[in-house]
C-alpha cells in the first residue's frame, strides 16, 4: 500500500507539470497577460513591462516561458498582482480558508442529510417515502445554484424584513461592512445561506447514491446469509448493509471534496463571499496572470490529491480490492 | 415493452406534456408572444410594472413585457441545448465507440483527456476555453464571434462529447465480449461494420439518456455563462433564458420579484422535465430492468 501511494505521488508531479503547462498556454492565449498589464497600468515604462514579462515567464516561446515561471513559482519568488501590485499569497490564503470553511460546512451538512434520506428511501423501495425522496432529489438536481441563491436572496434580503420587520440571515460577505476582527456568531450567520445553496445540490446527489448503493447491497447474497443466521434485522441492516453500502459513497465523497475547492464559484459570487471562486472570477475578469496561475496550481493539486485519497480509501475499506 | 415501462413512469409522462406545451408555445412564438422582443408594453412610465392585464408577468427596466421575452428567450436556449447536445452526442458516440472497441493507446489518451477536463471545475474550464477560442483569430469565421449563439454551441459541443464518450465506451466495452459480436467477427465483418450495425444500435438506450442530459447541461451551462456576463450578447434584441435570469440578479435588492421568479421557474421547469424524461428513458431501456419482468 505504501509503495502504491509513493508511486502515485511520484506520478503526480509530472502530471501537475503537464497540466499546469496546458493551463499556462490556455491562459496566455485566452487572457493575453501582457496586454492586460498595459491596460491596467497605462503609464508603465517599457523597463517595467519588460520586468513584468521576465518575472512571470511570459517569453514569446511558451516552453521557455513556462519553465521560467515554474522556477520562480517553486522558489516561492511569486510575482505581484497586476492590479494594485499586491502580494499574491496573502490573498490566496484568505480565499482558500474561506472556501474551505464554506465547503466543509456545506459538505458535512449535505452528505449527512443526503445519506440519511437515501437510507430512508431505500428501506421501502417503491413505497411512498421512496417516491417522495426521489422526486425531491430530482428537483434538487434540476435547480442550478444561482437560481436557488437568487430566490433565497430575494426572500431574505427584501421580503423577510418587509414581512417580519427584522432581517434573519445576511445575504452577502463574511461580516457586515465595517466589522473588524473575529466574531464566530456573525460569521456563522453569514454562512447559512451559501451553505444551504450548496447543500441542496449535495443532498440531492448523495441521497440518490446512497439509495442505489444500499439497494444493491440489500439484494446481495451475504445479506440473505446474515438473515438466515438469525441475526436481528437491525443488526443485519447496520452491521452488514450500511457498512458495505457506504464504501462506494465514501470514494465519491473524496472526489467531490477535492473538487469543492474550485467548485463554489457560482455561490460565492452571488453571495459576495470572498473565497476561491470570487478570487478567480475577479482575477479572470482583469486578466491578472500572476493571481491566476497559483490559483490553478492549487486547484489541480487538490484534484490530484483527492483522487489518490479516493483510490486509497476504496482499497482500505473494501478488502476485496488490492492496490499494487 | 420499453414504451410501456416509459409510460409507467408517471412523472415522465407529465413532463412530456409540459415540455411539449412549452415547445409548441415557443415554436409559435410570433403568435403566442404578445409583444415583440424589444417592444414596450405602453408609453412611459412603463418600467418595472408588476404583473397586470397588459403585461401578464410584469415588465423589465425599460418596459418590455417579460412574458413575451421569456418565450423568445426559451427559443434561443432550446436551440442552443438541442444543437450542442446533438453535436456532442455524435462526436461522443464516434470517439467512445472507437476508444472502447480498439482499446490500446488511443483509448488511454482519449480517456486521460476526458478525465482531466471533467475533473476541473466546470465554469473555470468553460471560461478559459471560451477566451482561448475567442482569441484565436483564424477560428472566428468558423465558430463565430465570442458572443454569438453559434460560438456558444461550439463551446458546449467541445465539452459535451466527453461525458457521452465515457458512457458509450463503457457500453461498448461490455458489449464487445458478447457472442453476437464474436459471431459477426467470425463471419468476417469489418470493424466499422460491427461498430455501425451492432455496437451503436445496441447502445441506443444509454445514448438517448446521454442526449437528454446533454440538453439540460447545455441549457443550464448557457444560463450560467450569461449570468456572469460571458454568454451570448443581446445583439439585435435577441435574448436567452440565461440573459433573463442574469437580469434577475439586479432585481433582487430592489424587490422586483417577478423579474427573478419567472425566469428562474422557467429554467427549473425545463431542466426538471427533461431530467424526468431522461430518467424514464433509462428505466425503459435498461436491460437489467427487462430481466425482472
Tell me what you see in this structure.
The complex is a heterodimer of chains A (324) and B (293). By secondary structure, chain A is an all-alpha fold. Chain A folds into two domains: 2-74, no CATH class; 88-317, Orthogonal Bundle (MetI-like fold). Helices cover 78% and strands 0% of the residues of chain A. Chain A contains 13 helices and no strands. In chain A, helix 1 runs antiparallel to helix 13 (289-317), helix 5 (88-122) crosses helix 12 (276-286) and helix 12 (276-286) packs antiparallel against helix 13 (289-317). The longest helix of chain A has 35 residues, at 88-122. Chain A is flat, with a radius of gyration of 24 Å. With 293 residues, chain B is mainly α. Chain B is built from 14 helices and no strands. Chain B has helices at 2-8, 10-27, 29-32, 66-102, 104-119, 122-135, 140-143, 149-175, 179-186, 191-202, 204-227, 241-251, 257-285, 287-292. Chain B is globular, with a radius of gyration of 22 Å. Chain B starts with a helix and ends with a helix. The mean pLDDT of chain B is 83. At the A-B interface, helix 1, helix 6, helix 7, helix 10 and helix 11 of A face helix 6, helix 11, helix 12 and helix 13 of B.
Topology:
The complex is a heterodimer of chains A (324) and B (293).
Chain A: H1 2-31, H2 33-40, H3 46-56, H4 62-74, H5 88-122, H6 128-142, H7 145-164, H8 184-218, H9 221-228, H10 233-263, H11 265-270, H12 276-286, H13 289-317
Helix pairs in contact in A: 1-13, 5-6, 5-8, 5-10, 5-12, 6-8, 7-8, 8-10, 9-10, 10-13, 12-13
Chain B: H1 2-8, H2 10-27, H3 29-32, H4 66-102, H5 104-119, H6 122-135, H7 140-143, H8 149-175, H9 179-186, H10 191-202, H11 204-227, H12 241-251, H13 257-285, H14 287-292
TL;DR?
The complex is a heterodimer of chains A (324) and B (293). Chain A has 324 residues and is mostly helical.
